[in-house]
Amino acid sequence: MARANRRLTHDARYGKYVDGPDPLAPPVDLAEALEAIGEDVMAGSSPERALNEFLRRGGANQAGLDDLARRVAERRRELAQKHNLDGTLQQIRELLDKAVLAERKQLARDASMDDGDRALAEMQLDALPPSPAAAVSELSDYQWHSSEARAEFEKIKDLLGREMLDQRFAGMKKALENATEADREAINAMLADLNELLDAHKRGEDTPEQFDDFMAKHGEFFPENPGTVDELIDALAERAAAAQRMRNSMTQEQRDELDALAQQAFGSPELMQSLAQLDDNLQSLRPGENWSGSERMNGEQGLGLGDGTGVFQSIADLDELSEQLSQSYNGSQLDDLDLDKLSRQLGDEATMDARALQQLEKALRDSGTLKRGTDGKLKLSPKAMRQLGKALLRDVADRMSGRQGNRDLRQAGAAGDRSGATREWAFGDTEPWDVTRTITNALTRTAGERGPSGSSSTVRIEVGDVEVQETEARTQACVALLVDTSFSMAMDGRWVPMKRTALALHTLITSRFRGDDLQLIGFGRHAEVMDIEQLTGLDAMWDKGTNLHHALLLANRHFRKHPNAQPVLLIVTDGEPTSHLEPNGEVYFNYPPDPVTVAYSVRELDNSTRLGAQTTFFRLGDDPGLARFIDSMARRAGGMVVAPELDDLGAAVVSSYLGSRRGPAGGSGSGGGTSGFDEMFGRGWGRWAD
């Protein structure tokens, strides 16, 4: 067994996982994304814009599009600032200097040489022009006396040929190192056949067989292994365009030098003629490539023609990635990201980050979190609203408990409080079983069935044996949450906390107190009954007026529809009433508050009190006038005033609702006292009450 284990360990191989996403990578965090998107939606963003913003920003442990775009920009800047375009000319100068120096040494030490010939040769070397191209041209017919010098000079022609080919065919410079005459002839034959194929394609006369014959004959020159003539043209045109952009970026002097030197490539102008024809064909077939761009390259590291073309290709890739990451074009989506290019330019880590963002976007859409409406726009689905509400409710529970996990609202009143008594189970009961009483009933019923030896038979529980734990009766509540939607709420940063509060209360009631009836009423210049989706997606508007009168009218209408329920009135506001409804239905507005507006609001609050509403005001802000008004309204209604911090608004409203469900005995209707809250949630609640 030990030998088998050793053999297994020896044979094991580990490598990078390349077949799609890493199966061991942590799952995408939908909860974090949903919370961030929900916050932006409640702040006024559309779900589409909120999703895009989260993808740009990223999460706590997830890089976003902006971070990837920053890395792309840094890589592009590095390439442009690191290099210059004088690499090939510099190599030619070095080879030329080596050749001339080796020739001078040979002339100096060759004692058998005629003095006249030596003087003439030295004169020719001394008269060489400073231009590398002109010097190479003059030396093309020079009779070298040094074999070493001749070899260095021939390297210039070989270098030029390989660089020219490397510009069009990546990797050719290295492949043709120490090339023979047969290799050069093979290159010329390939170029001739390639231009013939492209000419036929331009005329629409090429055939798949012609392409297949070409690849069978010259496929070694195309490691990309294109499957069609169009794939071949795409690959060639992309690199040829990069070569042209490199040329455009050179100075006129550099271009002139290289043009003159190019005629010496491989010692024959035939190569340049074939390459010029190839460039013409590619520009004609792919005019959409960037043939006219240029870059400023002022770095210290010189680039040869082939390497420089590769750098310009990389810059083009980075520009394309930058556009893809911007997601600013019509119909953009994360699936547009070219992960292969991203991996080539930034490495595997960036590719993993991008793939995680793609998975996150797909998961948000596929999980039902986001849905596209009939208008084509993304919306938060009901499922997303529930998930977001649960997250907000957990936050409220943490704040109410004072410490993580001390109270779980899932248990708060879900089946009433246990009274200690039990009763026989009846159809429809949902209370928990009293296991002890149930088993005792079964044993008592079957006591006479015991065998003569005293051994007991199997005890079977019947429906009549089951007893359940009684719970205190609960009063059904009819709840109206009135939230101020005037512009001051948005201007002073109270817009999102107000929406979070409404969503948390809505989630609590619809999931845990389904017998209660909640109505959400927003009031600005006028009031309006809203569903939770409408309220959470409400944009802040310049709406002069705080129409508490209209909001109370709607709340009282809600209370009258449920005469057997306990009315609970919760009012969140940061301003005194400045508008009311006239008898003709028109809105009257005045600032400062008109006594008539105040009177209308007070009259409707009195109606709420007569209906038995337990009222709590949640005052936002420190305006003294507002404080005096709210205090007087609360005293008149026998209600409470709570002045929470914005972060605690949700916990304050939820706790007030839970306290109101206990009825007047719980203290929530006792003229503003806090004993009910202190009893339920601790003494810390007293700091909110005025």
3D structure, described in words:
By secondary structure, the protein is of the alpha/beta class. The chain has 27 helices and 14 strands. Strand 3 and strand 4 form a beta hairpin. Helix 2 packs across helix 3, helix 5 runs antiparallel to helix 8 and helix 7 packs parallel to helix 13 (252-262). The longest helix has 23 residues, at 87-109.
Question: Radius of gyration, Cα only, in angstroms?
Answer: 42 Å
Strand content: 5-15%
Annotation field: number of helices = 27
Mean of residue pLDDT values: 82
Identify the overall geometry: elongated
**What kind of sheet is the major sheet?**
6 strands, mixed
Distance, first to last CA? 78 Å
pLDDT < 50 stretches = 1-10, 403-415, 664-690
What is the structural class? alpha/beta
* Helix content estimate: 40-55%
| Topology, number of strands | 14
Order of adjacent strands in the largest pleated sheet: 9-8-7-10-13-14
Give me a quick take on this structure.
The chain is of the alpha/beta class and about 700 residues long. Helix content is about 55%, strand content about 10%.
Topology of this structure?
Blueprint: H1 2-11, H2 30-42, H3 47-57, H4 65-82, E1 83-84, H5 87-109, H6 115-126, H7 132-139, H8 147-168, H9 172-175, H10 181-203, H11 208-218, H12 229-249, H13 252-262, H14 270-285, E2 301-302, H15 305-326, H16 339-346, H17 348-366, E3 370-372, E4 378-380, H18 382-401, E5 418-424, H19 435-445, E6 467-471, E7 477-484, H20 487-491, H21 495-512, E8 517-523, E9 527-530, H22 532-536, H23 548-560, E10 566-573, E11 579-581, E12 587-589, H24 595-610, E13 614-619, H25 624-637, E14 640-642, H26 649-660, H27 675-681
Parallel strand pairs: 1-2, 7-8, 7-10, 10-13, 13-14
Antiparallel strand pairs: 3-4, 5-6, 8-9, 11-12
Helix pairs in contact: 2-3, 2-18, 4-15, 5-6, 5-8, 7-13, 8-15, 10-11, 10-14, 12-14, 12-15, 16-17, 18-21, 18-26, 21-26, 23-24
